[in-house]
Amino acid sequence: MKHLLLVLLFALPPSVQDKPFSDKPDIDGALAKSKTENRRVLIVWGSNDSDESKSLSALLGKDAALKKKLLYEYDVVRAAPSELAKKYEADTSKLPALTILAADGKVLANLAAPADTKEIVTLLTKHQAEPLKAKDVCDAALKQAKESKKRVLLHFGAPW
């Protein structure tokens, strides 16, 4: 049983605080994923040598309310400030900073140097994607399958 537990622990994805801030973040990949899963993209702008950036990363990975909100509603991308920040209208003069994107890449919100957990959770909750109705999604899939003479595989799951 010990061996199985060790294997399961190593198989878990790294938490948010374990990932470095990237000079070439995969924002396009996160947007594609968020589009198929009805989620938002949260860009965390920061620096690998900034204590404030490290503190925010640790908070995102440890605070129960933030962790749950990110798990259910957001795909997180950690990015080092660059010309890319201008594209998303992010104020990276003081790090860390946050940008929330809709699945189409539209900027929904920016927050420079978040003050506390409550402020971040409020922002994330305000801008989370509207839930889809299962019946509407199923009906659309059945219609598309019928038109293309394919079958539909229903998969029920949860993010945990």
Defining traits:
elongated; 7 helices; Glutaredoxin; 14% strand; disordered N terminus
Summed up:
The protein is α+β, with helices and mostly antiparallel strands and 160 residues long.
What can you see in these coordinates?
- The protein has helices at 2-11, 27-37, 51-62, 64-73, 83-87, 117-126, 134-147; strands at 40-45, 74-79, 97-101, 107-112.
- With 160 residues, the protein is an alpha+beta fold.
- Strands 2-1-3-4 form a four-stranded mixed beta sheet.
- Helix content is 45%, strand content 14%.
- Helix 3 crosses helix 4 and helix 4 (64-73) packs parallel to helix 6.
- A hairpin with a 5-residue loop joins strand 3 and strand 4 (107-112).
- It is elongated.
- The chain has a single domain (12-147), classed as 3-Layer(aba) Sandwich (Glutaredoxin), CATH 3.40.30.10.
